[in-house]
Automatic annotation (TrEMBL):
Xref: InterPro entries: CMP-NeuNAc_synthase, Cytidylyl_trans, Nucleotide-diphossugar_trans
Origin species: Bacillus methanolicus PB1
Coiled-coil boundaries: none
Taxon lineage: Bacteria, Bacillati, Bacillota, Bacilli, Bacillales
Name this protein carries in UniProt: Posttranslational modification protein
Annotated transmembrane regions: none
GO molecular function: N-acylneuraminate cytidylyltransferase activity
One Pfam family from the record: CTP_transf_3
């Protein structure tokens, strides 16, 4: 089995939903659901949480995480990209464990509706696709750039985001598009350390349904996730 590590990168600050990574959901902190999903998947040699927030790290330790990484402040600002934080976390974990990890999986704490089987399936798909550099997860898009997703042009008028030579008159005829759901990311070590973004020419997709794809970025998102979580009864 390849050496695998799961990273969970959760900073303390949040403008859309205050303290969202530790906000209660089904009676436990939000981040705990992702930790428990990673544990129950039994796919990882190590699970690590990276944060600039002591309370997030304390809660992660309480839920069984043994590798706790203090994220530098410059990687935890509102404008900081997540990819450097993941790279930093993996580098620090390799120092602690004295191992190089072949497969790196990042689980976003703000997308807790994923299933444990989603994690297993995404890893298996990635590791069985020989030339893939990384994998992202997404759900079928509710709006199509070919049919009903529009943008303002330079003159201030509306136009379709993408045009085809033959106009689409039915949404069902448009090319299939997906909404990234920020749930599961998978890389091999080499591709992660070279990556400039989450998508390159050899990125593959693991499709998830909309009801498991909501990423909490607003109070409305939180209310929807809470409703679906309560309906399901459990998340991990």
């Amino acid at each position: 089995m390849p050496n695998r590590i799961c990273t969970i990168c959760a900073r303390g600050g949040s403008k859309g939903v205050k303290n969202k990574n530790i906000r209660p959901l089904l009676g436990i902190p939000l981040i705990a659901h992702t930790i428990m999903q990673a544990q129950k998947s039994k796919m990882f040699d190590f699970i690590a949480v990276s944060s600039d927030d002591d309370e997030i790290l304390r809660i992660s330790k309480q839920y069984g995480v043994k590798i706790l990484i203090n994220r530098p402040s410059e990687l935890a600002t509102d404008s900081a990209a997540k990819l450097p934080a993941i790279v930093h976390c993996v580098q620090e974990c390799e120092k602690v464990t004295e191992k190089n990890f072949q497969t790196i999986v990042d689980l976003d704490a703000t997308s807790p509706l994923r299933s444990v089987q989603d994690i297993v399936n995404a890893i298996q798909l990635f590791e069985s696709t020989r030339d893939a550099t990384n994998l992202i997860t997404a759900s079928p898009a509710r709006r199509s750039p070919y049919f009903n997703l529009v943008e303002l042009n330079e003159n201030g008028y509306i136009e379709l985001s993408k045009r085809l030579d033959k106009p689409i008159v039915r949404r069902q005829d448009a090319p299939k598009c997906f909404d990234m759901n920020a749930s599961i990311y998978v890389w091999n070590r080499e591709s992660l350390f070279k990556a400039k973004s989450a998508i390159d020419e050899k990125t593959i997709l693991y499709e998830m349904p909309e009801e498991r794809s909501i990423d909490i970025d607003s109070e409305l998102d939180y209310e929807i996730v809470q409703f679906l979580a309560e309906k399901r009864g459990r998340l991990s």
